[in-house]
């Protein structure tokens, strides 16, 4: 099976990064549906290290303010939902459930560098799945990397021990972007075929 043209448009060709948001809530059911798609995406060894914190109330998004770069404050505070895309450095504690391969937990537990690299890489991958799943379900998306990760971890993740990677604002865009789509690299500039 291949996505039809409208599916490709929805996910990639016509999709644009939201700049302004309508005052329209995103339902809990929609957020659960987004995650139900995200969790199906592949990760190495099915390690599934990503963790997501959905900030749905203005008060919780306001708690992000001190951690945000100046250019991101209005975008985040006006979004109906902001997701902290994080990863669990101790993801391997769940491997006995996620992967029947014996000895995986011990392998990662014995090598902190390997565990962190695996958690970051696969958690980032799952954050990409979040963007595509949200678009597939009709949400508009704004990924953000301009913030102080340590401040976000202190404010929201300290109890879990998770590590912040990036933010994703979700909602329904208010109008079309004011600027044309930024250029993208051509195949020959970004790819090698060996």
UniProtKB/TrEMBL annotation:
<keyword id="KW-0288">FMN</keyword>
<keyword id="KW-0560">Oxidoreductase</keyword>
<dbReference type="InterPro" id="IPR029479">
    <property type="entry name" value="Nitroreductase"/>
</dbReference>
<protein>
    <submittedName>
        <fullName>Malonic semialdehyde reductase</fullName>
        <ecNumber>1.1.1.298</ecNumber>
    </submittedName>
</protein>
<dbReference type="InterPro" id="IPR000415">
    <property type="entry name" value="Nitroreductase-like"/>
</dbReference>
<dbReference type="GO" id="GO:0035527">
    <property type="term" value="F:3-hydroxypropionate dehydrogenase (NADP+) activity"/>
</dbReference>
<keyword id="KW-0521">NADP</keyword>
<dbReference type="InterPro" id="IPR023936">
    <property type="entry name" value="RutE-like"/>
</dbReference>
<dbReference type="InterPro" id="IPR050461">
    <property type="entry name" value="Nitroreductase_HadB/RutE"/>
</dbReference>
<feature type="domain" description="Nitroreductase">
    <location>
        <begin position="21"/>
        <end position="172"/>
    </location>
</feature>
<dbReference type="Pfam" id="PF00881">
    <property type="entry name" value="Nitroreductase"/>
</dbReference>
<keyword id="KW-0285">Flavoprotein</keyword>
């Amino acid at each position: 099976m291949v996505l039809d043209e409208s599916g490709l448009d929805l996910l990639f060709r016509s999709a644009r990064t939201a700049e302004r948001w309508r005052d329209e809530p995103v339902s809990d059911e929609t957020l659960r549906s987004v995650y139900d798609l995200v969790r199906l995406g592949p990760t190495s060894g099915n390690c599934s290290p990503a963790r997501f914190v959905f900030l749905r109330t203005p008060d919780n998004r306001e708690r992000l303010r001190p951690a945000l770069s100046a250019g991101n404050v209005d975008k985040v505070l006006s979004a109906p939902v902001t997701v902290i895309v994080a990863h669990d450095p101790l993801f391997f504690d769940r491997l006995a459930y996620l992967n029947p391969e014996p000895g995986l937990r011990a392998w990662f537990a014995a090598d902190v560098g390997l565990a962190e690299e695996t958690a970051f890489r696969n958690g980032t991958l799952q954050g990409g799945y979040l963007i595509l799943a949200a678009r597939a379900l009709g949400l508009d998306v704004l990924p953000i990397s301009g913030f102080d990760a340590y401040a976000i971890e202190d404010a929201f993740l300290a109890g879990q021990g998770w590590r912040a990677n990036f933010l994703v604002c979700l909602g329904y865009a208010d109008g079309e972007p004011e600027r044309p789509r930024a250029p993208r690299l051509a195949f020959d500039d970004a790819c090698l075929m060996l």
